[in-house]
Amino acid sequence: MKDIILRLNKLFESRIRLGIMSILVVNDWVDFKYLKETLDLTDGNLASHLHSLEKNNYIHVRKGFIGRKPNTSFSVTDVGRKEFKLHLNALERLIKNI
């Protein structure tokens, strides 16, 4: 059992980062507004969690414009996808062993 817990990724202990990654792994690109509204977060709270994921190379950030409005969107990196899958597998093993 101890081995299973050690395989859990500490970065995904936050329900917000878990939610962000859950959304990103099933979508190509998702914009800031969609994440904010879906997860019911403030701008600052979402931004700090996105920064943590970006710092660990789990997400890509793309900044651009739609018309004259700035738009920031996000996608999961290969590293992020792999780490998230390992985390989910560890959770599943933990649940099955209880």
Overall description:
- This protein is an alpha+beta fold and about 100 residues long.
- It is about 55% helix and about 20% strand.
- The chain has one domain: Arc Repressor Mutant, subunit A (Orthogonal Bundle).
- It is elongated and about 55 Å long.
- The termini are close together.
Core attributes:
single chain; about 100 residues; alpha+beta; three-stranded antiparallel sheet
Radius of gyration: 15 Å
> Looking at CATH, which topology would you report?
Arc Repressor Mutant, subunit A
Q: Structural class, please? A: alpha+beta
The CATH architecture comes to Orthogonal Bundle
Helix content estimate:
55-70%
What global shape is seen? Answer: elongated
How many strands, what sense, and barrel or not for the largest sheet? 3 strands, antiparallel
Poorly predicted regions are none
Task: Give the helices and strands as they follow along the chain.
Answer: HHEHHEEH
Mean pLDDT: 94
Q: Tell me the name of the CATH homologous superfamily.
A: Winged helix-like DNA-binding domain superfamily/Winged helix DNA-binding domain
Distance N to C terminus = 9 Å
Strand order of the largest sheet: 1-3-2
- Give the helix tally: 5
- For the record, what CATH class applies? Mainly Alpha
* Secondary structure: number of strands: 3
Strand composition percent: 15-25%
Short description:
It contains 5 helices and 3 strands. By secondary structure, it is an alpha+beta fold.
Question: How does the SSE layout of this entry go?
Answer:
Elements: H1 2-6, H2 15-24, E1 30-31, H3 32-39, H4 43-55, E2 59-66, E3 69-76, H5 78-97
Antiparallel strand pairs: 1-3, 2-3
